[in-house]
């Protein structure tokens, strides 16, 4: 059982590295002009609101899961460059910091110029894609076969990009055509090919381990010097993907979410859905933590050892 308390804020202090951004879950620090340190906190959001308390070790679990995928992707697609450098902390951190905690939740990455696009791949029709299809028979403007049912597996995974909104904004689904206009034909083709290739490999890999990756979002950077397209951000975590438990999968209805179902159900049943300033009770924290651990263990074929 998790013994540690959740880490929801990370400050490396005056002697540490400069924080350059803070997302819903991660804090980003600058190491130097070429290198960033991503630190995942234990914060959790549901229905677009961040809960007051966190899930102990969630950040470490997600960082280690992402690192696992980066290594797998390097073996599957050796020609695709990624920003992943290591999960070892650089020297120069103040000794007052909880080193072991930080270590497991940190990732050193190459700093890149990010393409203004969320590269989504969908293998199943759900969420905003299902909503659009139900209305117009299309998904991101792509005409789909008639008679699809909710959560149905698509004959072939599709590339369905969206814009990358500014902080606080909302990403907008766009057609592959519009994406090509946004980032250019050649880069778009490379991003599409890479995204589909990773998704197909990862889907098969996860399916063997009892998890359906229904859809996922990648981000890419461009190397201004070489013109190369580089896979960045986090990859194939429950935060960037829809994971479904394979043994509960059923076409024709919405699916339970692997990680946040317990939390969402509790928020809904207690009338707190969408409210700010909510703290999860111990039971919700424990049950949610269990799911993150389970996803990590299934997908990495290894046991998670708690950090004190
Ligand atoms: P949220 O995920 O909370 O909606 P967010 O995506 O802005 O917001 P994070 O995911 O915490 O926040 O932060 C990651 C940010 O870093 C993103 O803006 C992402 O595009 C950017 N990023 C990812 N990889 C790199 C990289 N290699 N170099 C520079 N920026 C990167
Ligand atoms: Mg993000």
UniProtKB/TrEMBL annotation:
Top class in the EC scheme: ligase
SUPFAM superfamilies listed in its UniProt record: SAICAR synthase-like
Alphabetical keyword list: ATP-binding, Ligase, Nucleotide-binding, Purine biosynthesis
InterPro entries: SAICAR_synt/ADE2_N, SAICAR_synth, SAICAR_synthetase_CS
Domain SAICAR synthetase/ADE2 N-terminal: 20-279
UniProt key word Magnesium: no
Single GO term (MF): phosphoribosylaminoimidazolesuccinocarboxamide synthase activity
One matching Pfam family: SAICAR_synt
Pathway stated in the Swiss-Prot or TrEMBL entry: Purine metabolism; IMP biosynthesis via de novo pathway; 5-amino-1-(5-phospho-D-ribosyl)imidazole-4-carboxamide from 5-amino-1-(5-phospho-D-ribosyl)imidazole-4-carboxylate: step 1/2
One Gene Ontology term from the biological process aspect of the record: 'de novo' IMP biosynthetic process
EC annotation from Swiss-Prot or TrEMBL: 6.3.2.6
Keyword Lipoprotein in record: no
Cellular component terms (Gene Ontology): cytoplasm
NCBIfam families in the cross-refs: PRK13961.1, purC
HAMAP family: SAICAR_synth
PANTHER family per UniProt: PHOSPHORIBOSYLAMINOIMIDAZOLE-SUCCINOCARBOXAMIDE SYNTHASE (PTHR43700:SF1)
Assigned protein family: Belongs to the SAICAR synthetase family.
Protein name in UniProt: Phosphoribosylaminoimidazole-succinocarboxamide synthase
Species of provenance: Cryoendolithus antarcticus
